[in-house]
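Checklist before submission:
- one chain only
- standard amino acids only
- sequence pasted in full

Submission:
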Amino acid sequence: MKKFIFLITAVLILSCNNSKKENINNEKVVKKELRPFFNADKIDHYFVNYTLESIIDFEGKSKKSKKHQEFEDLFMGYFPDSIPKKDFEKTLISHNYKRSELSYKQQKEIENIFSEKDSLQMSAYACVPEYRDIFVFKRKEKTIGIAKICFKCGRFQIIGSKIDTQYFGLFDELEKLHNIVRPNEKKL
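Returned file contents:
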C-alpha cells in the first residue's frame, strides 16, 4: 500500500513539474519576432477631414457623379479591393486626401504596428466606417499595400499583405497609430 501511495505522489509531483515547464515554453512562443505585413521601404500617410454627416449631405442629389461614388466607396466602402493598376495616390489627392510627412522613426513605428500578431482580436463594430486615414506601403516606389483605418470605430481594411491580418486592430494598437500620425489631436 505504501508503494502505491508513493507512486501516486511521485506521478503528481512530476505532473506539476511538467506543467511548469510547459508554461515556460508557451511564454517563449509569445515573445517571437513578428513579421511586418509589408516588406516596404517607404510608408505614406493620407488624411481627409470629412465626416460621415458631410458625406450624407451629398446624397440628397438625385444622381451621383462617378467621382462622388468613387469617393463614397473609398471613404466608407471597400474600394479598392486590390492594389490598383493606376496611381492610387493620384486618386486620393483627387478626393482631397492630404499627404502627411512621416519621419523615418514614425515609419518604423507604423511598420511595427502593421505586423503579424499572436493576440485574439474580438471584432465588434458599431458604426459605418469613416476611412479618413489611408496608409500606402511602397517598395522601390511601387505600391505594394494599402491600409484604410477608421479610428472612430476601429474598423480597417488591409490590401496586399501575404500575412494573415485578422488579428490586427486592437484598440491599443490603433491608439498608438493615431498618436503617431496625429499626436496633437484628440481621438474621435
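Reviewer check: The first helix runs from residue 2 to 30.
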